[in-house]
Amino acid sequence: MENPTTVAGATTAATATTAETIIHHTTAFLSKAIADPELRNHLLALLHGGGRTHFAARFAAGSNLLKPHSLALEAVEKAIAATNLSVQSSSLAVAEKLLLCCSTTPFSSFLLSLIYSLVHQPAKAARAVLCLFRINPSVARSKFAPDLFQELFLVHLLPALRWFEEQRTRILSNSEASPTKVLSRMNGGQTKELKELEGIYEQVLDENCRVFAEYFINEVLSDGSAAEVGPPPAVVLGRGEAGEFAIAGFGRYNPIPKEEDAASTSSELCSPFGSSSTSSTPNSSGHHPPPATSSPSSPAKEAGSPAPSISDSDDNTSSSSSTASTSSSVSTPPSSSLSTLSTTNRPSPPPKDFVCPITSNIFTDPVTIETGQTYERKSIQEWLDRGNSSCPITRQKLTSTLLPKTNYVLKRLIAAWLEQNPTSSSPPIETPPRRRKSGEPTTTPSLSPNSVIVAAAAVDGSVSELRHAINNLCMSEILDESEAAVQTIERFWQEEVKKSKNQNRGGIDVQSVLSRPAVVSGFVEILFNSDDPAVLKAAVFLLSELGARDESVVQTLTRVDSDVDCILALFKNGLMEAVVLIYHLLRGSSSPEELMEMDMVESLVAVLERKESEMVEMCMKPRSAAVVLLGRMMASGEGSAVEAAIVEGIVKKEGDDVVAAIVGSLESEWDEERVSAVGMLLKVMKEDGRRRNTVADKAELAPVLESFTGGGDGEKFEIICFLSELVKLNRMTYNEQVLHIIKDEGTFSTMHTFLNYLQTAPVDQSPVLAGLLLQLDLLAEPRKMSMYREEAIDTFISCLKNSELPAAQVAAAKTIMSLPGRFNVSGKSLTRAFLLKCAGVEKSYRILTQNEHQQTRELYGETAEIEERAAEVWDMKMASALVSHEFGAIFEVLAEGMKSRNSELQSACFVSAVWLVHMLGVLPDTGIRGAARVCLLDQFVTIFKSAKDNEDKVLALLALKSFLNDPEGLQDLNNNMKDVKKGLRELRKSCPLAVEVLKDLTEGKDNSAELWNHKELVQVDCCENGEVLTIACFKDKIISGHSDGTMKVWTGKGSILHLIQEIREHTKGVSSLVVLQSGNKLYSGSLDRTTRVWSIVGDTLHCMKVHDMKDPVHNLVVANSIACFIPAGTGIKVHSWSGRSNLLNSGRYVKCLSLVQGKLYCGCHDSSIQEIDLATETVSFIQSGSRKLISKASPVHALEVRDGLIYSAVSPLDGAAVKIWSASNHGQVGSLATTMEVRAMAVSSELIYLGSRVGTIEIWDRKKHIRVETIQACTNSKVISMAVDCNEDILVAGTSDGWIQAWGVS
Length: 1306
Fold this sequence. Notes:
1306 residues, alpha+beta, 32 strands
């Protein structure tokens, strides 16, 4: 041992503390307390004995503070909050007077330190803080200000720390345990020695803390000069005469006797537990703990805080006798603070291995650095963050400042010790929020595995094998032995469970043995270190079984975050059985968001995908645990990100295995599992309606109905929504089967149960329930009266009337709209699409039901006709029930809903009303149609006139048609006949029903003239460019060719044609413009003997290629690979784009051409019409011409081919200027009796436009061959070109004097 004087001098030099240092650290500490109310309240609560309780709340509730303290606290808080300096100053003065008139306590000292800090007296503030370390050092250094203790005190106590480490090493040297399991391998004597050593060490820290606080206050912070400051109290180790270890020191305030007095006090220095007669003999521990004496002022008496107990809870009897002997035999000077330290009736201090040497608190996150020392992570990190790079105790230089992982072995041992010592004076370890349930008894496990085995010795004869396995699990350093132990324990557990089942015995004692923290920690060690799947499954199985039966096992596992993380990692890596253990660890302790943060969704879904036969049989099925955990995650609310992630994880799985597994959970005996399965299946069906068939095919609904009977309102509504979604199948016959199952299953009458719930359910939930109840009621033959039906329909009506709850209104309207029972395979209602189909507009219906009939036949062997008939019967039953209720009361509320500004409500009410009115046409007339007319006719007319959506107009027209057979309805329509007919004309092209209704309104007379209207839009003067020889339309553009070679591109905006491009690349007149349907190309033929190919890009034309045609181009027609045109002479020239040319029909002068599907139709000067097959070059005559020597020839001026008909315009000498021929047999099928000289012709899908030589344009009906309208061009010049746009909404004509004119077609 070093010479005491040498060590003291070194310590003094190394650890001198200046006033500036003390003031700096105390000022920083107090500044934080003043700035942070939460920290300040916490510190006040500690000093007042309230632990971590919020002091402000306790103060407001009225605590047992002395009145001066209460007033002073109130004044200090007021001063801190004040912004006025005078108010702050007066408040602090009052508080100081109140505290100085009272006795000094930790509470009053802290308040004084705050006051002095606020009035900028740092020295006084520092003295007040140091008083806390003098009065109650234990609380001050461990809880109140551990950082101050570390900065000001701990550096002076390194000799004591080294002495403690030497003694501890000597005690542990008798054990052959490895460092990681040293504490679990100690015998009882070693444990007792360590606890005695730790108790003395705590006393030494407290006493020296008092001494140094006194020294700092009276010497360092005194008003004298720095030269007058006395030496610090040195703490070093020396040897007494008998060779015992003792604490020696020098200095005025050193509590240890001087060297010359050591002989007289050697008996006290030997051991604080022996009398003077036994002081020279070592105690039973084999070591001599160092005592510490107090300063003369005996501050320990002021503090009054008890010292920690050093009794051994493992051996209560011997501990008690030892303590009693010690109490009676200890001999210390009267001034020693040890006279106030009792060793009886005190809580046991924690083992030193469990306490951080920096903070003196029990570890919550221990880390062992490279020097072998263990510290609290937060404290050592702060030490390193301040720029230190050495170990605080050994002062060895650290090669790395990165901290290692948590020492989880030590952490679990601490957790076990805390279970054994729940009343310890040291603070508890911070653990996850979930703890033992209220009122649940705690267990007191032993730290030693040997004691675990002894406790279980009475199980039976085979317990020796179990004892050996547990010893290997807890103590063996060989992984193979520990793994074998796990499998042995698993086999033993299985045997005991079988005995329990067969003989009503066994299992209970084994459970208590295996539930001890030491054994649980052994299982966790296996999970961390083993890579054998069988062993891992066995360990997880045992922990799951134990956790299901004993809450203390769950508490042991959840105390250490790394243990839970390990189990989660194993689960995510494919150990599916771990889901059961995870369920037990997390039950009732985590929010949906916290569960989601664990990122388990994919693994939980994988559990559902796995077959049960592939997993270990456990206390709970892994599938059940997965379903419940997923259900709890989804509990965060409708439409949440958590819910979306889970549904997506289920839906993206191919096949129906996952959905089938969830459906299987509907049969569970566990109610929470059934409800969780219902919630998931509901969301899955809404997301992917195609899964609905799987659910309906496999689901057992009786257990679900039982859950409804015993569930809460939220669970009941979710079950109702699930059942409602389940009957949205695309087969009406199957829907009825499911409804029968719902109606007939269950212990109680389903309909009566639903009715009772409907009468008490929240308003926004009642429409869905009412819809389901009404469907169940209609399964039987409709009766005149039914309380279920009446209650359901009354619910719809009351919800639709309740304008204060828009959500209930929308839910009611949508439910009514779905009652016809027509759904596609995805569960979407087909009511609107079906009504459009009834009106002849089938596009929406085809899109929604694509391939449905084929699927119905292939998958279920039922024809579409059978399903359609079943749907029609259901339609009639449902509509009859709704409209018959209180003589059509439903129509009134639907009419009000159609007036709503809520688009959802308005749309749903509109479709529902159309459906019911349409069904009135097939139901027997009982006078209800009149009620519907009164309520709805005006609404339908308004929608028909003003709706922007054509489908809405068609639906309104379908409803109006139902009133045409009613004389009063027809009379009401006559009041709006003009607007109705206008709407019919607009719909005529897209809706066959419009033609039918128009015919009904005109009493069967075909008045086509009333159907069409051509309104002039615009006229443009292009006289400077000569004649408008040709016009073509492409999308929203109009392209014109002029006789001077100019091409112009126009776009229509309202009533004006905007010129967007003018092109002058042809040198002579542009005679023809052709747009191919297959691409964005335009061909222009010109009298300059060229044909140009243009690309249409955006609003402009770009010339791609120029073809030399060798002849002037008249009347160009184009196919993909060739172009045909009329040259200057006879015949027709066929030009290949590769450059070859061929002349056809060379004996005729051709006037006009038309090319359709490889057939070239020619109109000639001699009034003949030929058809030329371009493939074979054969010529067929459609009309023979005549050669006239004297009279003028009668050429074919215009020729158009459309829909298999040929329209030719010739001279009107025979009374018909336009003749119509069949392209198939070349026979004449009709003619138009016009007397005009036709020079141009355009044909649309329904109309024929004839342009005359005097500017008149006649419009004829293609089907009836009657003239419907005549319009006049802006001049009397010849109309030489016409075109209709692709939508047939605009007619464009060009004249010989250069005008372009457009009309809107409606």
